[in-house]
Design brief:
The complex is a heterodimer of chains A (about 475) and B (about 150).
Chain A: E1 7-10, E2 13-16, E3 26-28, H1 32-37, H2 40-50, E4 55-66, E5 73-79, E6 86-87, E7 99-108, H3 109-113, H4 116-126, H5 141-157, H6 163-166, H7 185-191, E8 204-213, H8 216-222, E9 228-235, H9 238-258, E10 271-272, H10 276-310, E11 318-323, E12 326-334, E13 337-346, E14 349-350, E15 369-372, E16 380-385, H11 387-393, E17 396-397, H12 407-413, H13 416-425, E18 429-432, H14 435-440, H15 449-458, E19 462-475
Parallel strand pairs in A: 3-4, 18-19
Antiparallel strand pairs in A: 1-2, 2-3, 4-5, 5-13, 6-10, 7-9, 7-11, 8-9, 8-19, 12-13, 14-17, 15-16, 16-19
Chain B: H1 5-8, E1 11-17, E2 20-27, H2 30-45, E3 55-63, H3 66-84, E4 86-98, E5 101-112, H4 115-118, E6 126-127, E7 133-136, E8 142-149
Helix pairs in contact in B: 2-3
The chains are: A alpha+beta (about 475), B alpha+beta (about 150).
Chain lengths: ~475, ~150
């Protein structure tokens, strides 16, 4: 990025000054090196976000910010509904509530290494992944609506998990304000065979071992110690979420044309939250969040069943479940006053600080866990939200490093089978339905997540609690 | 200057776009360009030569302009493919003016997903408005393109 666009506030905070139609400035949290590598397009997109009605504070970019549809990926923006604040489908993303959940296992790395190939094969057989995969659940329309209303709570009551899982997910595993009737029938049809599937692309299920602890108090609270094994599941709201995003994106663009609102970018189309269209999208989006939470809950159950076959004494309690692509109504303190704001996080993770009442008692003192996935076969990180982050970024952090090259470039450079072989030699077992897909996800195709995580820490947005390395990775 | 038959035939292309993929259809008519853009989109998922055109699905949509119509067409195809669990390789398109905008009636031909045979590599989540363009080329042919989110 052209540094002359920005004012340096500190080594990890940069300001895009208000100009033109911007209602607030832009703020980028990143190191100088990360800023240098960012496209100017990120600044352009932040300008567009900063122009939206009802925006509060600043249009924010996390250390992993890169170009997205309308909002940058790694973008955070909060709006006050009482001041005409808006909701934007582009500010949430196509994969509504894509996110990560991490389970503890009570096992040690050596336990896994003794049966690594077997575990990889078993998880690959049990976890539906890849294009055309079907889940074991076929929901009729009535059950679909229950799922959209109930999220992870629905899944647990249907036998896919434990009550204790719910307190360790954002919003207790269920968005109250979900409105299934605002989700189109064809979005529901698109989902009917996809419940409990992983998807493809950068979605995964990984078995990981802690290889470095940085913050002992939080690590103890999270049950992480060197060599401890965890399981992470990264996926979203599947076809239903993509369809909701498509349907409402189109409605917002059409509404903008009808109301003669000039949009800088169609993907930035919006509606006031306090409008019929805004409320309809909000209800549908919340239903899609429930779909993602329910989906990850079903996958959790399948992972537990697989583990039980090889490690019958292992319990897999849920550490936490975080979402990346959402717009949530939250209370934040701005200039000393409590305000109820709609916080859009697109490719950004909620990271509430210590003491936040929404956190379960065992996690509250340390702050909310945040899971930052590395690229396939590389280390991931577990962070903890901070008090400082609550005021700097509405309690938000990064979500993972962006791509360093296009998919086409990656498939030219690497062959999937060779990538799998190479990772096998490095001690990581990959199981995939598509070797070409694996080439597109090769470790070198992504930027270094360690740099992003360090900048997140240095900017005060989160603490780094532990680093985990992959042992098994299942991909679609 | 030779006549390059390969260049003249309707075709699709992919173009780089950040973390996602651009699809571009080129044809003698706007309808051919739309059909090729659809081929381009499904070619992101798998090798089209593996997809047998044994079943047909009808698709209809309308929009105020040709660009929005392209996104609607591709979105409708993703919906049909996703809900029917099919992949498509052949497309036919008819576009006519209607009510101050455009209406499309088309068909997609393909078959149910067979993971062994088709070896799909990645799902297309949505068609977007990024790099959206539909229009005539200097040589009189038509182009229809946009970025798809994978």
């Amino acid at each position: 990025m052209d540094f002359s666009l920005l004012e340096k506030v500190s080594n990890h905070e940069w300001r895009l000054p208000r100009s033109g139609a911007m209602r607030v400035p832009g703020v980028l949290y990143a190191s100088q090196a990360l800023i240098r590598d960012m496209d100017d397009a990120v600044a352009e997109q932040l300008r567009g976000v900063a122009e939206l009605p009802g925006i509060v504070g600043a249009a924010l970019a996390m250390p992993d910010a890169h170009w997205g549809y309308g909002f940058p990926i790694g973008g955070v923006a909060a709006f006050d509904p009482k001041e005409g604040g808006i909701i934007s489908a582009g500010g949430v993303g196509f994969d509504i509530a894509c996110g990560v959940r991490t389970l503890r296992t009570g096992l040690h790395e050596e336990d896994i290494l003794a049966r690594q190939g077997e575990l990889a094969d078993l998880l690959f057989a049990r976890i539906p992944a890849g294009v055309g995969s079907t889940g074991m659940l076929k929901l009729n329309m009535k059950e679909m609506d229950r799922m959209l209303r109930g999220g992870a709570e629905w899944a647990v009551s249907a036998g896919y998990g434990e009550a204790a899982d719910l307190s360790h997910a954002e919003e207790g595993g269920r968005m109250d304000l979900a409105e299934p009737d605002k989700v189109s029938d064809h979005a529901k049809k698109r989902q009917q065979a996809e419940m409990g599937t992983l998807g493809s692309g950068n979605h995964y299920l990984e078995v990981q071992a802690v290889d470095q602890v940085y913050e002992a108090d939080a690590a103890v609270a999270y049950g992480l110690s060197p060599g401890a094994v965890v399981v992470s599941i990264h996926c979203g709201s599947r076809g239903l979420g993509h369809q909701v995003a498509t349907d409402y994106g189109k409605r917002m663009v059409n509404e903008a044309a009808r109301a003669k609102i000039k949009l800088r970018d169609r993907e930035l189309a919006y509606a006031p939250l306090d409008s019929d269209l805004g409320q309809a999208y909000f209800g549908a989006m919340n239903a899609a969040i429930n779909c993602a939470l329910g989906n990850r809950q079903v996958l959790t159950h399948l992972a537990r069943l697989a583990f039980a076959e090889l490690f019958p004494r292992a319990a897999l309690p849920l550490l936490y479940d975080v979402c990346h692509n959402t717009a949530k109504l939250e209370t934040h303190v701005v200039d000393g006053k409590k305000r109820r704001l709609l916080v859009h996080r697109k490719g950004a993770t909620r990271a509430f600080g210590p003491g936040h009442p929404s956190l379960p008692p065992d996690l509250r003192p340390a702050g909310q866990p945040v899971f930052i996935g590395g690229s396939m076969g590389t280390a991931s990180y577990i962070l903890a939200g901070t008090e400082e982050g609550m005021s700097r970024s509405f309690g938000s952090a990064c979500h993972g490093a962006g791509r360093a090259m296009s998919r086409k470039q990656a498939t030219k450079r690497w062959k999937g089978r060779e990538v799998v072989e190479q990772l096998h030699r490095q001690g990581v077992e990959i199981r995939t339905t598509s070797f070409r897909g694996v080439a597109e996800e090769a470790p070198g195709a992504y930027k270094d997540v360690a740099e992003v995580v360090e900048a997140t820490r240095a900017a005060g947005l989160a603490r780094i609690v532990a680093r985990v390395r992959p042992l098994v990775c299942v991909k679609g | 200057m030779g006549y390059n038959r390969a260049m003249a035939a309707p075709r699709y292309e992919h173009f780089h776009h950040k973390a996602d993929i651009g699809v571009r259809g080129i044809g003698d008519t706007v309808e051919q360009a739309f059909a090729q853009a659809a081929r381009g989109m499904f070619a992101v998922v798998c090798d089209l030569r593996r997809v047998r055109a044994t079943a047909e699905v009808s698709v209809a949509c309308s929009a105020p302009d040709l660009e929005l119509l392209l996104v609607d067409w591709l979105s409708a195809l993703l919906l049909e493919a996703g809900s029917r669990r099919m992949l498509f390789s052949r497309f036919s398109v008819l576009i006519h003016e209607q009510d101050g905008g455009f209406a499309l009636s088309g068909a997609a031909r393909g078959e149910p997903v067979d993971r062994e045979r088709h070896r799909p590599r990645v799902e297309v989540k949505a068609a977007t408005w990024a790099e959206l363009a539909v229009g005539p080329l200097p040589d009189g042919r038509w182009v229809a393109q946009c970025v798809v989110d994978v």
